[in-house]
Design brief:
Layout: H1 2-41, H2 64-73, E1 81-86, E2 91-96, H3 105-122, E3 128-133, E4 136-141, H4 142-149, H5 159-167, H6 173-182
Length: 186
Amino acid sequence: MMKTRNRIIIALSILGIVLFGYVQGVVIPKNNEKKQQYIAQQQNPRTHDLDTILKYKSKYMGDFSNLANLFRTLPLNNIERSYELFPDKLIAQVNYKDSIDNISEEEVVKALLYNSTAAFALIDNLEGVNYNFPGTNFMILRSDVEKWYGEKLLGLLKKDEWKSKVQDKLLDNEYVNNFTNVVLKR
């Protein structure tokens, strides 16, 4: 009886050590890798997860923490920045600390297209976003973005619509160049 109990205890101890090693050596690293991959995907407008920003839907741009949290979850969130609100003009300004030369103009333009569309779709009374980089300034107006899409932006906030009308279009360089020429004001 004592030998059987000791064998069971030893077998369970060995099993526990093996499972612990498996969790530490396989499961946790895979989860960390998936988490890092997801974070990287959030930097790319093409793979950004719409669901992460829907909670920032607001009627008013004057809710500073809501606006700041929205931009913290959008592409370019890895660049240090500050914010200014101009409530009399219903304009938000995002002041990036890094210059476009250190990023990539193409990456920045796609992110600004995406971020502006998201901000206007989610914040009802936001009329403009001024993106300020050292040496470069971009202004995007709600009216221009709505003309660009040909519809009220709130209608884009369905996953399929968002993917087809916002994210998938970013693959088309001519589309992005036209957006830059028509909507993006330097």
